[in-house]
Amino acid sequence: MSTEILMEKDTEVFVRLNCEPHVKMELNHYFRFRPNGYQFMPMYRRKKWDGYVYLFNMDNHRIYAGLKPEINRFAVDREYKLIDNTGDVSEEISNDDYFNFLTSFPCEYKLRDYQSFAVRHSIDKQRCLLLSPTASGKSLIIYYLVRYYFPEKSLIIVPTLSLVSQMYSDFEAYSKIDDSFQVEENVHKIFGGQDKETDKPIVISTWQSLYELKKNFFTDFRLVIGDEAHLYKAKSLTKIMKNLENAPYRIGTTGTLDEIEVHKLILEGLFGKTKKVTSTKDLIKKKTLSSIAIRCLVLKYNKQECKEVFEMSYQEEIDFLVSHPQRNNYICNLVKGLTGNTLVLFQYIEKHGNILHSILKDIIDPTRKIFFVYGGTDADSREKVRELVEGEQNAIICASYGVYSTGVNIRNIHNIVFASPSKSRIRNLQSIGRGLRKSETKEAATLYDISDDLTHSERKNYTLNHFMERVKIYTTEHFPYHIYSIPIKGR
Question: Given the DSSP bridges, would you call strands 14-18 and 4-9 parallel, antiparallel or unpaired?
C-alpha cells in the first residue's frame, strides 16, 4: 500500500496536507529555504534560529496553495499518492469564448501576441506569476484581466505611489473609446491620505497603504493582481495575501526574478507557478522595444585616493564617491553634453541627488527643463513630470532609483545615467527598462554606466566589483556594451 497525502482546501491562501508523521517531516525539510544574508541576522548569530524559513507548518499542516505543483512533484518523486480533495477546478477558456471576450469592448490598444498569451494563460490557470520584462506592457495585460473579471471586486497592488497614478492613467487611456467602462466610476486609488473605503469594484493601491488595514477590508475581493511583485517585502506581502482569503484569482507580474530560490518560492506560493511571457532580447529583435547601447565609463583615480579608499568599509567608499567634487562635476558635464531627454539616477537624496541637481541647474542652458524627483515628491507631481517629459525632446530628470527605476512608463527617454553604484540585478534591469520604451521620436537609447576604479595592491574596491557584476548582467541579457577608462582628478 503506497503512502498517501490528503490535500484539502483551507482558504484561497492555504491548503492542508494530512499524512503520516514521517511524511510531514519530509515536507517540512523539502519546503524550506535560507533567506539571503541569514548568517548575519541577530537571531541566527545568537543561535536562537537555524536560519531556515519553513513553508509547511508542522502544527496546522498548512502550506501555500500556490505551491500545489511543487507538492505534486514532491509526491511523484517519492512515489507517494497525492489525493487532491481541494475541489479546485481550472477550466481552460475555449477559443470562441476567448475571442468573444477580446471583442466584447473597444480598446485602442490591442494586445500583442505575447500579451494575449499572458492574459489567456492567467484566465486558464487562475493563479500564476507572469515573468515579462520591463517595458513589455504589463499594465495592458492587467487591464484586460480586470475587464475579464469585471464587475468582480479586484485589487491591484503596486510598489510605489507613482505606479498608482500611472496605472490609473493607463486605464483611462485604454478605456478612452469605451462608453461602457468609465474609470472614474469604477476605479479607486489608495495612497497617502486617500480614503480607503470605497464602493468602486476596482482598487489600485501601494502595498504600504494596505499593510496596516484590518482583515475585513479584504473580504470581498475576488481578484488580486500584484504588479512588480518581486519588489514587495516578504513580510508585508504575505500579510496582505493571507488577508485575501476569498480571492481565488491571483496573478503576479514581474519583470525579473531574483536569482535567490527563496524569493521565487514565496512568490509562487502566494500567486502560482511562474510562466515566462517573453524576453527583452525577443522584444528588441521584433522592434517592439527600442535598441540600447551601453557605455561603461570607468573612472580611474590617482594612487593617493586609491590608497585612502583601500581601508574603507563599503558605506565609507560610497560616501567618498558621492561627495567627490570632480566625480559629480564629470557626471553633470556628461549630462550637459547629451542630446535628448536624459534620466539621471541617484541613490541618496541629501548627499548626492541634491548636489547633482544643484550643479545641473548652474551649468545647463536655462531653456532646457530640469526636473527633480525623489521619495518626497507627491504622486500627482511625479505623474505631471512624466506627462511633461513625454512632450519634451531635451529635458533632464534627476531622480532617485527608488522612484524611477521601477515601472514608470516614460517612452521618450533617450539617455540614462547611472550616477550611483548599484549591484542589484533587479534594480539594474528595471532602470535599463526606462530607456527601452519606444516613441514616435525615439528608436534607440544609450545607458551611461558610471563606475569607479580605486584598485590598490591588486585589490579591487567594492563598487568596482559591483560594476563587474553589472557587466555579467549585460552579457547575459545580450545588451551591447563598451568599456572606457577615464582618468579623473583628485580632490
Answer: antiparallel
